[in-house]
Specification:
Elements lengths: L4 H11 L3 H10 L4 H10 L6 H7 L1 H14 L1 E7 L2 E7 H10 L1 H13 L3 E6 L7 H25 L1
Antiparallel strand pairs: 1-2, 1-3
Helix pairs in contact: 1-2, 1-3, 2-3, 6-7
Protein name: DUF4342 domain-containing protein
Pfam families: DUF4342
InterPro entries: DUF4342, UBA-like_sf
């Protein structure tokens, strides 16, 4: 069977090998592209696609971060009533795509004495909540001072 340049090009794209390796694999497999791919894979010249994706450290890290983010939530509440409860992953995505809106919202939340909490899946608080409480108290103190100044003026 004659090997065509189209077959060689297709095998090169699929297996990411050179012309010579693609031609030799096709010749050994009588022009069968699937068999040639299997042959190249058995020669460790290409990795199986699934193994490549599973082995990627970047993909593993991204999956781990998303998994952790989905197990945590951002809760905004006022007077023990929940105003907003979002998974952390969604809050981060929203922050990335709508930064100005998020900043304005945070300022409003802090000025109106709402509480911002980060909670784990099981309901436990995160350690960052202590720092958020300190910032909230400082903002509340400044807000109260400004209110008194306006009232007295």
């Amino acid at each position: 069977m004659a090997i065509t340049i189209e077959q060689i090009d297709l095998l090169r794209k699929r297996a990411d090998v050179g012309y010579k390796e693609a031609k030799e694999a096709l010749e050994k497999c009588n022009g069968d592209i699937v068999e040639a791919l299997s042959y190249l894979e058995s020669q460790n010249k290409i990795k199986p696609e699934e193994e490549f994706l599973k082995g990627s450290s970047l993909i593993k890290k991204i999956k781990r971060v998303i998994s952790k983010g989905n197990k945590m939530s951002v809760v905004i509440s006022k007077s023990e009533k929940t105003i907003l409860n979002l998974p952390l992953t969604l809050a981060v995505v929203f922050t990335v795509f709508a930064m100005p809106v998020v900043i304005i919202s945070l300022v409003i939340v802090l000025i109106t004495s709402c509480k911002i909490r980060f909670n784990r899946e099981n309901g436990d608080d995160c350690s960052i909540n202590d720092k958020i409480d300190k910032v909230s108290k400082a903002v509340e103190h400044v807000t109260n001072k400004v209110n008194k100044e306006f009232t007295n003026a």
